[in-house]
Amino acid sequence: MTPVKSVGYYLAIVLVTAFSILIINCSKAVPSRNSRKGNLNNGAETTQITRQEASNHETSEIIQTLIPDDFAIDEEIDRFNRDEIIIELTKLEPQTQGVRALSVAYLLASLKHDYLTNQKKIVSLLQSCSREGINRIGSIQCEMATDYGIRLFEKGDDSLLNPLLDMGLVSDGDLAEMLGSFYADILQHQPEKFLLALQTRKPKEQRELAWLAGAEDGSGMPPETLSEVMISLERISEQKSNRLADTARRCLKEIEKVNHRINRLTNE
Protein backbone atom coordinates (compact mmCIF):
# COMPACT_ATOMS: atom_id res chain seq x y z
CA MET A 1 0.00 0.00 0.00
CA THR A 2 1.41 3.37 -1.13
CA PRO A 3 1.94 5.69 1.80
CA VAL A 4 -0.08 8.91 1.78
CA LYS A 5 2.17 11.98 1.56
CA SER A 6 1.45 14.73 4.00
CA VAL A 7 0.51 18.29 3.12
CA GLY A 8 3.89 19.42 4.38
CA TYR A 9 5.61 17.29 1.77
CA TYR A 10 3.82 18.97 -1.14
CA LEU A 11 4.36 22.40 0.35
CA ALA A 12 8.10 21.74 0.51
CA ILE A 13 8.16 20.78 -3.18
CA VAL A 14 6.37 24.01 -4.15
CA LEU A 15 8.80 26.14 -2.16
CA VAL A 16 11.87 24.44 -3.67
CA THR A 17 10.49 24.90 -7.19
CA ALA A 18 9.71 28.58 -6.65
CA PHE A 19 13.16 29.22 -5.19
CA SER A 20 14.84 27.55 -8.21
CA ILE A 21 12.86 29.73 -10.66
CA LEU A 22 13.84 32.85 -8.71
CA ILE A 23 17.56 31.97 -8.90
CA ILE A 24 17.37 31.38 -12.68
CA ASN A 25 15.64 34.71 -13.32
CA CYS A 26 18.18 36.61 -11.20
CA SER A 27 21.10 35.06 -13.07
CA LYS A 28 19.59 36.26 -16.38
CA ALA A 29 18.98 39.77 -15.10
CA VAL A 30 22.56 40.33 -13.84
CA PRO A 31 25.09 40.50 -16.76
CA SER A 32 28.33 38.62 -16.53
CA ARG A 33 31.63 40.40 -15.92
CA ASN A 34 32.62 40.01 -19.56
CA SER A 35 29.26 41.29 -20.67
CA ARG A 36 29.53 44.37 -18.45
CA LYS A 37 33.05 44.99 -19.77
CA GLY A 38 31.77 44.80 -23.32
CA ASN A 39 29.03 47.29 -22.60
CA LEU A 40 31.51 49.69 -21.02
CA ASN A 41 33.78 49.38 -24.06
CA ASN A 42 30.86 50.09 -26.35
CA GLY A 43 30.14 53.19 -24.32
CA ALA A 44 33.74 54.35 -24.64
CA GLU A 45 33.67 53.76 -28.39
CA THR A 46 30.45 55.73 -28.68
CA THR A 47 32.01 58.58 -26.71
CA GLN A 48 35.11 58.48 -28.92
CA ILE A 49 33.01 58.57 -32.08
CA THR A 50 30.98 61.45 -30.71
CA ARG A 51 34.15 63.41 -29.94
CA GLN A 52 35.51 62.65 -33.40
CA GLU A 53 32.28 63.86 -35.00
CA ALA A 54 32.47 67.03 -32.91
CA SER A 55 36.09 67.50 -33.99
CA ASN A 56 35.16 67.05 -37.65
CA HIS A 57 32.36 69.56 -37.23
CA GLU A 58 34.76 72.07 -35.67
CA THR A 59 37.31 71.46 -38.42
CA SER A 60 34.67 72.16 -41.03
CA GLU A 61 33.71 75.34 -39.22
CA ILE A 62 37.34 76.55 -39.08
CA ILE A 63 37.96 75.98 -42.78
CA GLN A 64 34.60 77.28 -43.91
CA THR A 65 35.01 80.41 -41.81
CA LEU A 66 38.62 81.22 -42.70
CA ILE A 67 38.61 80.15 -46.37
CA PRO A 68 35.10 80.61 -47.77
CA ASP A 69 35.08 80.44 -51.57
CA ASP A 70 38.88 79.90 -51.51
CA PHE A 71 39.62 83.44 -50.23
CA ALA A 72 41.23 83.87 -46.80
CA ILE A 73 39.33 85.82 -44.13
CA ASP A 74 41.92 86.38 -41.42
CA GLU A 75 39.66 88.80 -39.53
CA GLU A 76 37.97 85.70 -38.08
CA ILE A 77 41.17 84.03 -36.83
CA ASP A 78 40.68 85.10 -33.23
CA ARG A 79 37.47 83.07 -33.04
CA PHE A 80 39.47 79.84 -32.93
CA ASN A 81 42.40 78.33 -31.09
CA ARG A 82 45.68 79.02 -32.94
CA ASP A 83 47.01 75.46 -32.62
CA GLU A 84 43.75 73.98 -33.90
CA ILE A 85 43.79 76.29 -36.91
CA ILE A 86 47.36 75.29 -37.75
CA ILE A 87 46.52 71.57 -37.44
CA GLU A 88 43.55 71.90 -39.79
CA LEU A 89 45.38 74.07 -42.31
CA THR A 90 48.40 71.74 -42.45
CA LYS A 91 46.04 68.78 -42.97
CA LEU A 92 44.31 70.68 -45.76
CA GLU A 93 47.53 71.91 -47.37
CA PRO A 94 48.48 68.72 -49.33
CA GLN A 95 44.95 68.51 -50.77
CA THR A 96 44.86 72.03 -52.19
CA GLN A 97 46.23 73.80 -55.21
CA GLY A 98 45.87 77.11 -57.02
CA VAL A 99 44.25 80.02 -55.21
CA ARG A 100 43.07 77.87 -52.28
CA ALA A 101 46.63 76.71 -51.63
CA LEU A 102 47.75 80.35 -51.68
CA SER A 103 45.09 81.18 -49.08
CA VAL A 104 46.31 78.35 -46.84
CA ALA A 105 49.89 79.66 -47.15
CA TYR A 106 48.79 83.18 -46.29
CA LEU A 107 46.86 82.10 -43.18
CA LEU A 108 49.78 79.99 -41.96
CA ALA A 109 52.11 82.95 -42.51
CA SER A 110 49.69 85.19 -40.61
CA LEU A 111 49.90 82.76 -37.71
CA LYS A 112 53.73 82.88 -37.89
CA HIS A 113 53.81 79.15 -38.65
CA ASP A 114 56.80 78.23 -40.86
CA TYR A 115 56.65 81.87 -41.91
CA LEU A 116 59.44 82.03 -44.47
CA THR A 117 58.20 78.97 -46.36
CA ASN A 118 54.64 80.26 -46.60
CA GLN A 119 55.63 83.86 -47.27
CA LYS A 120 57.89 82.68 -50.09
CA LYS A 121 54.89 81.11 -51.85
CA ILE A 122 53.24 84.52 -52.02
CA VAL A 123 56.44 86.31 -53.06
CA SER A 124 57.14 83.72 -55.77
CA LEU A 125 53.71 84.25 -57.29
CA LEU A 126 54.13 88.03 -57.17
CA GLN A 127 57.45 87.67 -59.00
CA SER A 128 55.91 85.39 -61.61
CA CYS A 129 53.09 87.86 -62.20
CA SER A 130 55.46 90.81 -62.65
CA ARG A 131 57.99 88.93 -64.82
CA GLU A 132 55.77 86.70 -66.96
CA GLY A 133 52.72 88.95 -67.12
CA ILE A 134 49.38 88.99 -65.36
CA ASN A 135 47.51 87.61 -68.38
CA ARG A 136 49.75 84.56 -68.50
CA ILE A 137 49.60 83.77 -64.79
CA GLY A 138 45.96 84.77 -64.28
CA SER A 139 44.38 87.95 -62.97
CA ILE A 140 42.72 86.26 -59.98
CA GLN A 141 45.97 84.63 -58.84
CA CYS A 142 47.93 87.88 -59.22
CA GLU A 143 45.29 89.95 -57.43
CA MET A 144 45.15 87.48 -54.55
CA ALA A 145 48.94 87.39 -54.24
CA THR A 146 48.95 91.20 -54.22
CA ASP A 147 46.24 91.37 -51.58
CA TYR A 148 48.03 88.84 -49.34
CA GLY A 149 51.36 90.60 -49.90
CA ILE A 150 49.84 93.92 -48.81
CA ARG A 151 48.37 92.30 -45.71
CA LEU A 152 51.71 90.77 -44.72
CA PHE A 153 53.43 94.11 -45.27
CA GLU A 154 50.85 95.76 -43.01
CA LYS A 155 51.60 93.08 -40.41
CA GLY A 156 55.24 94.22 -40.39
CA ASP A 157 57.04 92.42 -43.25
CA ASP A 158 58.81 95.25 -45.12
CA SER A 159 60.43 92.78 -47.54
CA LEU A 160 57.11 92.60 -49.41
CA LEU A 161 57.35 96.23 -50.56
CA ASN A 162 59.69 95.69 -53.52
CA PRO A 163 57.70 92.79 -55.04
CA LEU A 164 54.57 94.91 -54.61
CA LEU A 165 56.23 97.84 -56.37
CA ASP A 166 57.17 95.50 -59.23
CA MET A 167 53.49 94.58 -59.51
CA GLY A 168 52.59 98.24 -59.94
CA LEU A 169 54.63 98.44 -63.13
CA VAL A 170 52.52 95.75 -64.84
CA SER A 171 49.13 96.45 -63.25
CA ASP A 172 45.95 98.00 -64.59
CA GLY A 173 42.27 98.15 -63.69
CA ASP A 174 41.31 96.88 -60.24
CA LEU A 175 44.84 95.78 -59.45
CA ALA A 176 46.25 99.23 -60.22
CA GLU A 177 43.62 100.80 -57.96
CA MET A 178 44.45 98.40 -55.13
CA LEU A 179 48.16 99.13 -55.41
CA GLY A 180 47.67 102.87 -55.87
CA SER A 181 45.75 103.10 -52.60
CA PHE A 182 48.43 101.00 -50.90
CA TYR A 183 51.26 103.22 -52.17
CA ALA A 184 49.40 106.36 -51.14
CA ASP A 185 48.94 105.04 -47.63
CA ILE A 186 52.68 104.39 -47.28
CA LEU A 187 53.52 107.83 -48.68
CA GLN A 188 51.19 109.43 -46.18
CA HIS A 189 52.40 107.57 -43.10
CA GLN A 190 55.92 106.37 -43.99
CA PRO A 191 57.18 108.60 -46.84
CA GLU A 192 60.86 107.82 -46.31
CA LYS A 193 60.22 104.09 -46.54
CA PHE A 194 58.41 104.51 -49.86
CA LEU A 195 61.07 106.84 -51.28
CA LEU A 196 63.89 104.57 -50.17
CA ALA A 197 62.32 101.66 -52.07
CA LEU A 198 61.87 103.87 -55.15
CA GLN A 199 65.36 105.32 -55.04
CA THR A 200 67.07 102.24 -56.51
CA ARG A 201 64.74 102.22 -59.51
CA LYS A 202 65.03 104.02 -62.82
CA PRO A 203 63.50 107.52 -62.94
CA LYS A 204 60.84 106.30 -65.38
CA GLU A 205 59.71 103.62 -62.94
CA GLN A 206 59.75 106.12 -60.07
CA ARG A 207 57.39 108.38 -62.00
CA GLU A 208 55.03 105.53 -62.91
CA LEU A 209 54.76 104.34 -59.32
CA ALA A 210 54.33 107.87 -57.98
CA TRP A 211 51.53 108.39 -60.52
CA LEU A 212 49.75 105.30 -59.21
CA ALA A 213 50.11 106.57 -55.65
CA GLY A 214 48.69 109.95 -56.62
CA ALA A 215 45.74 108.40 -58.43
CA GLU A 216 44.95 106.03 -55.54
CA ASP A 217 41.79 104.14 -56.59
CA GLY A 218 41.40 106.32 -59.68
CA SER A 219 39.66 109.19 -57.94
CA GLY A 220 42.84 110.87 -56.72
CA MET A 221 44.03 111.57 -53.21
CA PRO A 222 41.53 113.10 -50.76
CA PRO A 223 42.41 116.76 -50.07
CA GLU A 224 43.74 116.11 -46.56
CA THR A 225 45.90 113.20 -47.72
CA LEU A 226 47.18 115.16 -50.72
CA SER A 227 48.13 118.11 -48.53
CA GLU A 228 49.94 115.91 -46.02
CA VAL A 229 51.84 114.01 -48.72
CA MET A 230 52.89 117.16 -50.56
CA ILE A 231 54.18 118.80 -47.37
CA SER A 232 56.28 115.68 -46.58
CA LEU A 233 57.68 115.44 -50.10
CA GLU A 234 58.46 119.15 -50.27
CA ARG A 235 60.28 118.97 -46.96
CA ILE A 236 62.44 116.03 -48.10
CA SER A 237 63.10 117.48 -51.56
CA GLU A 238 64.44 120.71 -50.04
CA GLN A 239 67.03 118.88 -47.96
CA LYS A 240 70.09 119.10 -50.21
CA SER A 241 72.04 116.59 -48.17
CA ASN A 242 69.20 114.07 -48.21
CA ARG A 243 69.86 111.28 -50.70
CA LEU A 244 66.09 110.90 -51.17
CA ALA A 245 65.65 114.52 -52.34
CA ASP A 246 65.66 113.76 -56.09
CA THR A 247 63.23 110.89 -55.72
CA ALA A 248 60.96 113.07 -53.55
CA ARG A 249 60.92 115.78 -56.24
CA ARG A 250 59.93 113.28 -58.95
CA CYS A 251 57.17 111.88 -56.79
CA LEU A 252 55.89 115.32 -55.87
CA LYS A 253 55.71 116.36 -59.52
CA GLU A 254 53.81 113.23 -60.60
CA ILE A 255 51.37 113.36 -57.69
CA GLU A 256 50.58 117.03 -58.40
CA LYS A 257 50.15 116.26 -62.10
CA VAL A 258 47.79 113.29 -61.71
CA ASN A 259 45.59 114.98 -59.11
CA HIS A 260 45.37 118.15 -61.24
CA ARG A 261 44.26 116.02 -64.20
CA ILE A 262 41.67 114.09 -62.16
CA ASN A 263 40.22 117.30 -60.70
CA ARG A 264 39.99 118.85 -64.14
CA LEU A 265 38.16 115.83 -65.57
CA THR A 266 35.85 115.73 -62.56
CA ASN A 267 34.89 119.38 -62.94
CA GLU A 268 34.23 119.22 -66.69
Description:
The chain is mostly helical and 268 residues long. The chain is 76% helix and 0% strand. The chain contains 13 helices and no strands. It has helices at residues 7-29, 33-66, 82-92, 98-110, 115-132, 134-137, 139-154, 161-168, 173-189, 191-199, 203-215, 223-237, 245-267. Helix 4 (98-110) packs parallel to helix 7 and helix 9 packs across helix 11 (203-215).
Q: What's the rounded overall pLDDT mean?
A: 84
Total E-strand runs:
0
**Discrete helix count:** 13
Secondary structure class reads: mainly alpha
Q: What is the percent of helical residues?
A: over 70%
Low-confidence parts: 1-5, 26-59
Shape: elongated
Distance between the termini: 141 Å
The oligomerization state is: single chain
Computed over alpha carbons, the radius of gyration is 37 Å
Element string (H = helix, E = strand):
HHHHHHHHHHHHH
Per DSSP, what share of the residues sits in E-state strands of 2 or more residues?
Answer: under 5%
Q: Biggest sheet, open or closed, and with what strands and sense?
A: none
Index terms:
76% helix, 268 residues, mainly alpha
Write the layout of secondary structure elements.
Blueprint: H1 7-29, H2 33-66, H3 82-92, H4 98-110, H5 115-132, H6 134-137, H7 139-154, H8 161-168, H9 173-189, H10 191-199, H11 203-215, H12 223-237, H13 245-267
Helix pairs in contact: 4-5, 4-7, 5-7, 5-8, 7-8, 7-9, 8-9, 9-10, 9-11, 11-13, 12-13
